[in-house]
Amino acid sequence: MTDKSGCDEKKVEDDATCARNAEKMSGGPTVTVYPSLWCPEGKAAHRFRVRDDVSAGAKHAETENSTDGIARQSVQCRCSSHNQVPRYYRKVSAAQTSGLILGIESSCDETAAAVVRAGQQVYSNVLASQIALHANYGGVVPELASREHLRNIVPVVRQAIEQSGFTLRDLQAIAVTEGPGLAGALLVGITYAKALAFGLNIPLIGVNHLEGHIHAVLMEARQRADAPMELPLLALVVSGGHTHLYLAKQSRQGAWSYQNVGRTVDDAAGEAYDKVAKLLGLGYPGGPWIDALASRGNPRAVPFQFNPIKPRAHRPGISLPNKKASYPEHSGPSFDFSFSGIKTAVLRYIETHAMKPAIDRRRAALAELSDPKPADAAALCDAETLDLLASFQYAVVGNLERQAFAASEAFGARGIVVSGGVAANRELRQRLQAEADRRGLPIAFPSLALSTDNAAMIAAAAWPKLLACQFADDSLVATPQLRLG
Ligand code: KG4
Ligand code: ZN
């Protein structure tokens, strides 16, 4: 059986077939059918068929193309279980599109929206932080986070649009964090982004939160007009929920790909900061507190050790291009991390040095203040506490540094990008910069504002996806354990 688009039902082999036939029929430009718009099952019976009214669709597409640079045509799934009519889009070049993307981020405890042009120019970057809410509990309470996102999402997006000076109609795409993160929190952003994209009839782009952190650095490097770093890059993503090493590459078409070459086997580095700060009666999140106090102590007072981590037995797709590279004594060929041990070591130290009463006094004194800040804690910490904090940070940063440079050497990285909340840490920046300089390796960090969660990074990461037509469809769901690479 042959339908009007010229596709033989039995012979449809790949996604380009219908597009080519549609092109023949409409006499229009090449239409790219994006695979994610196909039924997830990917069975032949689920393939899409260009609708009978394809020529009318093409005409419609031409009209729309003149206003926003992205053409749309209707396609229909043959499968009876899919009654929605997905859209697909024609590829556009960077020059053909205004590139205005609204980014939405709601993966954890910040509701954020930003309008960014072409992955570079930030017109607005709005953030509603929930830190004060969760600080009362010493960590993020998922259910409270979801409710707070629900309250904030509309005003935050509205403010981002207003501050940008554009209107919703000017947008080319909506980008949203699809994971990893808290399920309920992600769901708020995704549902809102889906509805907005549907209402505006513009593409929806799903972005991995960790990829967003990497693109915060790349975006700011472009803003500074830095010479582009040579590829591949080693990306150290170090945040409250993740500690990952990725080898990042870009295809000729501009699409980025990532190979996960190291990760934490237990706690993330930021999580260790948060837990140690809590143990010592400091505020939440712990990173900025320890960062501010550690410089007052002796980093060699407590000799914390990181035990070697067994290499993972099976690492598909991982090969070491630089086989002659010498690895640090304890890391072997494993570039993984483990931070739960040092947290336990701090706890033991507190117990064996009878620090508990002083910690309780500090906690109570800080609780008296309406908005306690790290500077308030300095006067409440004795030398032993400051030494402990300095030693903890010295050891954590040392471990991140050793693993990152060992991996960069082993995989032949031409530059290093450090991102995520812990990238705000001053000692981390200083030591990694110094080591990179020593090796003559370019290294880049995000500004302090873009180290922690924000939506500009989500919009920036979506830009190459917009150019590559990597769009999400109605089936986009929150994926709390979403992996990158
Ligand atoms: O990227 P992010 O904002 O959220 C996640 O995706 O997790 O990172 C938050 C984490 C928290 O654990 C926080 O303690 C840590 O980043 N952090 C810091 C600093 N600022 C934030 N850690 C060390 N030093 C800092 N200055
Ligand atoms: Zn983050």
Could you explain how this protein is built, in words?
- It is a single chain.
- This protein has three domains: about 10-90, no CATH class; about 95-225 and about 455-465, ATPase, nucleotide binding domain (Nucleotidyltransferase, domain 5, 2-Layer Sandwich), CATH 3.30.420.40; about 235-440, Nucleotidyltransferase, domain 5 (2-Layer Sandwich), CATH 3.30.420.40.
- Helix content is about 40%, strand content about 15%.
- The chain is built from 15 helices and 13 strands.
- The chain has helices spanning about 15-25, 55-70, 130-135, 140-165, 185-200, 210-225, 270-280, 285-295, 340-350, 355-370, 375-380, 385-410, 425-440, 450, 455-465; strands spanning about 50, 70-75, 85-90, 100-105, 110-115, 120-130, 175-180, 205-210, 235-240, 245-250, 255-265, 415-420, 445.
- The longest helix is centred in the C-terminal third of the chain and has 28 residues, at about 385-410.
- The chain is globular, with a radius of gyration of 25 Å.
- Mean pLDDT is about 80; it is low at about 1-80, about 80-85 and about 325-330.
